[in-house]
Amino acid sequence: MAQIKKYTKKDGSKAYMFNLYLGTDPVTGKQRRTTRRGFRTMAEAKTALSRLELEVMENGLPTSKRKIMTFEEVYKLWFEQHKATVKESSAYIHNTIIKVQVLPYFGTLRVDKIDTVYCQKQVNRIFKTLKNYNSAINLIRRIFDYAKVMKQIKTNPMNDVIIPKKRKTLDDTDKPVNFYTKEQLRTFLETLKEHAPYQMYVAFRVMAFTGMRKGELAALKWSDVDFENGTISINKTVAFNNAGKFHIQTPKTRKSIRTISIDDTTLNALKTWKNELRKELFKQGQNIDKGDGFIFHTQKGNFIIKYIDKFLPSFLKKYNLPPIKPHGFRHTHASLLFESGASIKEVQDRLGHENIKTTMDIYTHVTKSAREKTAEKFAKYIDF
């Protein structure tokens, strides 16, 4: 406990002083003390001592000797903790967002000098330039929260930021829909079977008739297919790791781990592809029947995920087929399931949606298309 002492100054006058123990500095690990002197009266010394004790109690050690970090320095410390709590693919995405969208604007600034006005300016920029703007904004907020925990700042400057919202425009309804109708899918698969490598026909058939994600497709092994019972087990996916390279990890969500039934035509296509592959691997001295090989892969044995992204747009353009992205076959499967009479719960389980809202969004779209035909159906039925 600090004691106030009376002492004699060089000029012979009397004054008061105190020496206060502040605690252990978490940055240096050393004990910190401070001495204040030159108070004319005991009352002045007591007031100064009380104020200093209250400040240390509320805010921690005075920051005069503490190194205040830049945003990038705080980010690096935060990311070391963060990457241990999320999947490698998520850590890779978050790291990329921060490096591209945040560090060029925040990185060199001291965290205690960044205010809400500056943060609002950057939030507005991110909103205009990034489709998934909420993700970037939330990451910035979490990094400042970490800076606060480390006693680098007293308040998070992101707390009072206003996040803009996208406004729907009349053009939103005219945006191209990323799915095929039943007839469009039939034409696509027939064209694919006739003009593309057989592996590509099987791969897109599996995606369109199971609704699995392309990462899940790329991770499939022969042991995941039960030819006897006509099912496929989806229990892994291909995704980026922290080094920006593809690797195998658990699926997107808990619900994504699932076993689904497949139709006979798709099953037979897989059998045919397996027999073709067996012949090729036999020449190389490999045995496909062990079941540990990937069903789909490039000629060099790499994951097929990038090849699919490259193959699809060029094939569609060459044969003048409607535009669609690989993920659109998942949407296509869901849409056709609803049209065939499947329930919302059945579609959610088959596609592995964690949140039923995702399933409902597709259902709303499908029923909207059906509603547009209602008047036409009614007029044809009445016929007068």
Task: Provide key terms for this protein.
elongated, hpI Integrase, Chain A, DNA polymerase, domain 1, 3-stranded antiparallel sheet, 11% strand, 384 residues, mainly alpha, 14 helices
Structure explained in plain terms:
It is a single chain. The chain folds into three domains: 4-59; 71-149, Orthogonal Bundle (DNA polymerase, domain 1), CATH 1.10.150; 182-374, hpI Integrase, Chain A (Orthogonal Bundle). The chain has 14 helices and eight strands. A hairpin with a 5-residue loop joins β1 and β2. The longest helix is centred in the last third of the chain and has 20 residues, at 264-283. It is elongated and about 105 Å long. The termini are far apart. Strands 1-2-3 form a three-stranded antiparallel beta sheet, covered by helices on one side. It has helices spanning 42-59, 71-82, 88-106, 116-129, 133-149, 182-195, 198-210, 214-219, 264-283, 305-318, 328-339, 344-351, 356-372, 374-382, and strands spanning 4-8, 14-24, 31-39, 225-226, 231-234, 237-240, 246-249, 258-261. With 384 residues, the protein is mainly alpha-helical.
Query: Under CATH, the topology of the largest domain is which?
Result: hpI Integrase, Chain A
**End-to-end distance, in Å?**
99 Å
CATH class descriptor of the largest domain: Mainly Alpha
Low-confidence stretches: 170-174
- Classification by helices and strands: mainly alpha
Order of strands, main sheet, comes to 1-2-3
Strand content: 5-15%
| Total number of domains | 3
Secondary-structure element string:
EEEHHHHHHHHEEEEEHHHHHH
Give the % helix.
40-55%
Give the overall form. Answer: elongated
